[in-house]
Design goal:
Blueprint: H1 8-15, E1 19-21, E2 25-27, H2 30-47, H3 51-67, E3 70-73, H4 76-83, E4 92-96, H5 101-115, E5 121-125, H6 126-131, H7 136-149, E6 154-164, H8 167-170, H9 174-190, E7 195-199, H10 211-214, H11 216-232, E8 240-244, H12 255-268, E9 276-279, H13 302-313, E10 319-322, H14 335-338, E11 341-346, H15 348-355, H16 362-375, H17 386-393, H18 402-406, H19 410-430, H20 437-443
Helix pairs in contact: 2-3, 2-7, 3-7, 4-20, 5-7, 5-19, 9-11, 11-12, 16-17
């Protein structure tokens, strides 16, 4: 099993035959670096206890990926092509990887390579970065390491999802909450997250007299955050920024809400706008869990996606984004491209494939269940069954049990990763992203961007 390097000296010696350090990194022996050293380097980027060693490993992965042609990129160019009618007929999957990130990302790159797919995103939300113990620089190192390991060349779309404003905290101290979101956004941009979804939809106040007034705090903060991102984005890059009008799990979104939001947004910000709009269609994050732990099928209104996408494209945006859909039956996935959804966010089903797999170690499953019952995370409910609480709270276990979940027995690991890869292939097929690599290459410009070299190199 791969092991992290223990010291900077160990790291330098191990890499000396494969890498040369100048301004960035030159990979002098790609075969040896990829096959013999990269897995250990990723482990160092994730698990090294010494911060300088950990940060150096993350930087080396990003610099080596750049030298080999795998670059963090903005999907803005593709979404502009979709908005103008130059590209159509597919929905971009955004894969939310809470744990086992490197292995899951490798499976995604393999599935994409097999299907010649280029239109796919890796994402994680701001709150998940906290409770899954995954800061932005670690997430991007895992994704870019996976790209190198699987021979991917070209853009790699890494996205910060739900950079969300807490309504309770915001209406008590709006300035402080906004500054917190800006700080998190800056950290993500520095780590190579060149796609950011702003989410002040929690600030919508439905008892105000007009739709525009209801959306006012939402569009004002979205405009402020767009301006912040535009001033902070790397030279030569237009970060793809997403907005949201319907909080997931609440009432379904309408064209009127989008138009009121976008009118107010453009009054506040006249520069390059958001590229897409997240809406509510009847789903919820994680789905509605029955007492036995299974999920009810959501009553999704696909017309919301189609109608608001039409309104988006009339204003130069690519279209709508669907959240909370990974637990939907696969038979429904072709409906997303049919109804012009530009992007779909997927998380819970990937978690279930891991934790519910018959090869997942029973002893570890018992530990996760015991931790949930003892700790009682925010999603835990006293009147819920044990199965319901596990399904709702399991996402909180990725952080406390990070090492165990990265170190599954070989047979269990292989079976689980194979199941994940089969799921990724199915998703790519249902969403029509098979064969999109060429159109991504046509419309997406990659710009090599590296943070400063760590001391010690």
């Amino acid at each position: 099993m791969p092991q992290p390097y223990r010291t900077l000296d160990n790291l330098r010696v191990a890499l000396s035959d494969c890498l040369r350090f100048d301004r960035g990194v030159q990979v002098t022996d790609p075969g040896a670096f990829t096959a013999k050293l990269l897995d250990n380097l990723v482990r160092t980027a994730v698990f090294a206890e010494d911060p300088p060693l950990r940060d150096t490993a993350r930087w080396i992965i990003r610099a080596a990926a750049a030298d080999l042609g795998a670059h963090p990129a903005s999907i803005q160019g593709l979404y502009e092509a979709i908005a103008s009618g130059k590209a159509r007929g597919f929905t971009v999957p955004a894969h939310n990887l809470r744990g086992m990130i490197y292995d899951k990302a490798r499976a995604i790159f393999r599935a994409a390579k097999a299907l010649d797919a280029g239109a796919f995103i890796f994402e994680i939300s701001r709150t998940e970065m906290g409770y899954c113990f995954v800061p932005p620089a670690e997430y991007s190192a895992c994704i870019l390491g996976a790209a190198v390991r699987e021979g991917h060349r070209g853009p790699v779309f890494i996205q910060g999802d739900h950079f969300q404003f807490s309504a309770r905290e915001y209406f008590q101290d709006p300035g402080s909450v906004t500054e917190t979101i800006k700080k998190a956004t800056a950290e993500a941009l520095d780590a190579g997250f060149l796609n950011i979804d702003i989410d002040p939809s929690t600030l919508v106040v439905l008892d105000r007299p007009t739709v525009k007034e209801q959306q006012r705090d939402n569009y004002e903060r979205a405009a402020e955050m767009t301006e912040f991102i535009r001033k902070r984005q790397p030279a030569g890059v237009d970060v793809s920024v997403g907005g949201e009008i319907g909080e997931v799990g609440k009432k379904n979104s309408t064209v009127e809400e989008f138009e009121a939001y976008f009118e107010g947004y453009r009054e506040r910000w006249s520069g390059k706008p958001i590229s897409k709009m997240s809406v509510q269609t009847g789903t919820s994050h994680g789905g509605v869990v029955r007492p036995d732990g299974t999920r009810e099928e959501a009553a999704i209104d696909f017309a919301v996606l189609r109608d608001i996408t039409a309104a988006c494209r009339a204003r130069g945006l690519a279209g709508t984004v669907q959240h909370g859909a990974s637990t939907l039956p696969e038979r429904l996935f072709p409906e997303f491209p049919r109804h012009d959804a530009v992007e779909i966010h997927l998380a819970t089903e990937f978690q279930r494939i891991v934790l519910d797999h018959p090869e997942f170690p029973r002893e570890l499953r018992a530990k996760l269940e015991g931790w949930i019952e003892e700790t009682r995370p925010p999603e835990w409910k006293a009147d819920a069954t044990k199965a319901q609480n596990f399904e709702k709270c399991a996402k909180r276990t990725w952080g406390p049990f990070k090492k165990e979940l990265w170190s599954l027995p070989p047979a269990a690991h292989e079976a689980i990763v194979m199941a994940l890869e089969a799921k990724f292939r199915a998703i790519f097929t249902h969403l029509n992203v098979k064969g999109t690599r060429a159109i991504v290459a046509e419309h997406v410009k990659t710009v090599p961007v590296l943070p400063p070299k760590p001391q010690g190199l």
